[in-house]
Amino acid sequence: MHIRFPTVLAVITTIIGLGSLVLNRIYSIQAFAAFSCLGLLSMLVMMLYAVPAVLSVLPLPKKTNAAPHEGGPINAFLKKIIYLNIKRRKWVLAAILLVSLVAVIGIARIHVETNPVGFFKKNTPISRHFEDISKQTSGSFPVNVVLNARTEGYFEDPAHLAQIEQLQTFLNTLDGVDKTVSLADFLKLVNYATNQYDPNAYALPEEPFEVRMLINSYKTMLGQEMFQRFMDPDMKHANILLRTHISGSRDFLALKQKISKYIKERFESHFEAQVTGFGIVISQSSQLLTKGLVKSLSLTLILIIGVMSLLFLSARVGFMAIIPNLFPIVISFGLMGWLGIELSVATSLIAGIAIGLAVDDTIHYLVRYNHEFKKDLDKDRALRDTIYGVGRPIIFTTLAISLGFSVLIFSHFNPTAVFGLLMVATMVASLAGALLILPSVMLQVELVTAWDLLRLMPTMGSISPGVAHELNQPLNAIKVGSEFLKMMAERKQTVPDDRMCLVATEISGQVDRASMIINRLTEPAENRGFQKEKVQLNDVIQKTLSIIEQQLLLDNIRVAPDLNPELPLIFGQANRLEQVMYNLLSNAADAIMAVQDETPGIKGRLIAIRSFIEQNRVKVSISDTGIGIPVALQDRIFEPFFTGKEAGKGAGLGLCISREVVKNHGGSIRVKSWEMQGSTFVLSFPKARETGEL
User: Fold this and answer.
1) Per-residue pLDDT, 596
2) pLDDT tens for residues 289-300?
3) Structural domain that includes position 436
4) CA torsion, points 188, 192, 195, 201, in degrees to nearest 10?
5) Most confidently modeled of 198-207, 284-293, 469-478?
6) Same domain for 372 and 349
7) What is the pLDDT of residues 565-614, one digit of tens each?
8) How many domains are there within the chain?
9) Burial label, 91 (beta-carbon count in 10 A; 0-12, 13-18, 19+)
């Protein structure tokens, strides 16, 4: 089960990355995406069923006595990675940012280019033959300029044929154009031949009937098929053939723009024109390539961010987790820009493949990190054990994939060689993202998964830790009262009647409170909350103290309340606020109990409680002379499942629940703490009249 989930999720995200390529309008890329996704699904079936079956019949590997984290170059490398993530995190991220900025500058240098001749290296036969043809003939890549007149028989007029000749004169001046051929050229040739090769007859006819006569002669001499290559039977659509020696998509696009601009300026009122041909198709495919790349990459990022956000119940985690996956894409495209590699059909596949492979490493790291983090909620220890656990397979898979793609570098087919080079660079960058960027980024977020949420929900035959924590408060209060009576009995001391009455009343009240919590679990969800009412925080504090004060006295902890008698009311739920006060007082007592008698810098065993008005808000501060909270942990104390107590003595929900209760009352909670000098928690609430709930 530990392997199945990350494996399935990794395959799904890889399918998302490759499947997004189906948005590209180029059929070959769509086919590549479809068959790649099919291959991934078949691989998943093999990994889940065939591989375990084969492993079950193979002998088990021999056990070694070597410690898993000691010895060997891989472990030494991982140890340095851990050191960089924990001790030099800011420097590492700064270096990564600098490299990324250099790569972004390189991205700005990328040109979209598809050059079929450039696909082959210069010393290959195909490249040499194309160069010979370009030198000895009139070009290998044709371009067609199709003229569409608005009326039939338009080009029977000699003046209109002269427009074709005028346009050809301009086309012959364009860079890359070796020769142009049209019906006008053939009519001049036929006129020249039928007039006994008189040089003066190599010209267009001047009368319409002469045009028709030459066309009939042209059809007789060269055939109907040759005529239809350059003119339709209605004499409405004419074709001009351009023989060019250009082969790049950018050159074809520039040629098309020049032709279209010239025709629009000179002949827009006479006919429309379309520039087409093999070269133009290449240039248009490059435009589709760019648009398809943007669409597929955007879809991939959105879907993967969505998957990560759902998995870890946080959009912030989703966005943070995608950062290391963007790094290899930035590096690969930046490398393209600096090396002068054009964005072509082959290189456009890099982004989808890169993010699909990078997310695999991210998922394996996050799943393992979440598992390690929940052991003791120590992020540094979880990072260390996670890198030791998944670092080795990530390194080996990266090496294996890189070696596989590196074979392509030796191909004579340039797109294949470039694809292999960029994939090797992408895999190396992906390794850096998984081992350097991702661990550092994850230290800055609260990592809670959907499975952690399920642990907080009531289930059949059990209750969640959240409900258990709430129910534990009255039970602890009952325990405090009963232990006080037990201690007095063991000491054979007489309990004063008023004290006995007070303890009995509190025990009875806490039993009623526990009963109410249990009854609330059986009510419909919409009726489970407590009704808000006017609440005096001083009463809440005093009631909480009556529950816990006896235990504090037994632990030799003094309580110094300083309550403002004119404290305004707030709107809230008294029981929930008592739970908050109990949590804070209990934590303060634990912090004081953690202080050793010889601990320097700490004096007395005191909890000070103060209620006051500040900035027109009702506030309560609870200060202790406990051991304090380290600065590095102060941002994490409100995280779910985080606890500073010993293992088994805290679920890490007290402060998390308290913060949510305070926020539900429109308030806030903040902490000031100095290590070895105690802590102060300050609660702030709006007055009842400011809430509008009177």
Assistant:
1) 65
2) 667 777 777 777
3) 4-60+69-108+284-451
4) 70
5) 198-207
6) yes
7) 999 999 888 888 888 898 899 889 888 888 865 555 456 789 999 999 99
8) 3
9) exposed
Q: Structure pTM? A: 0.56
Would you tell me the crossing angle of helices 574-593 and 654-664 to the nearest 10 degrees? 150
Here the tokens at position 306 are 């969505």
- Separation of CA 17 from chain center: 11
- Are residue 298 and residue 347 in the same domain, yes or no? yes
Asked whether 433 and 97 are in contact (CB, 8 A), the reply is: no
What tokens appear for 74 in the block?
């891989």
Asked which of 396, 419, 451 is the last residue of a domain, the reply is 451
Whether residue 305 is contained in a domain is answered as yes
40 assigned to some structural domain: yes
User: Are residues 138 and 94 part of one domain?
Assistant: no
Strand partners, 413: 120
CATH code for position 364: 1.20.1640.10
Q: From CA 683, how far away is CA 372, in angstroms rounded?
A: 33
The three-class DSSP label of residue 323 is: helix
Q: In sequence order, what DSSP letters do the residues of 127-172 get, joined into one string?
A: HHHHHHHHHHSS-SEEEEEEEEESSTTGGGSHHHHHHHHHHHHHHT
Paired tokens of 645: 């107590």
Tokens standing for residue 566: 């004119």
| Helix and strand totals (H; E) in the chain | 24, 11
Grouping H, G, I as helix, E, B as strand and the rest as coil, residue 456 is coil
Which tokens in the block code for residue 511? Answer: 């039993």
Is 477 a domain residue? no
Whether 270 and 332 share a structural domain: no
Query: CATH number for the domain including 673?
Result: 3.30.565.10
> Where does 214-307 show beta strands of DSSP type E?
237-244, 271-276
Torsion angles phi and psi, residue 632, rounded to 5: -65, -20
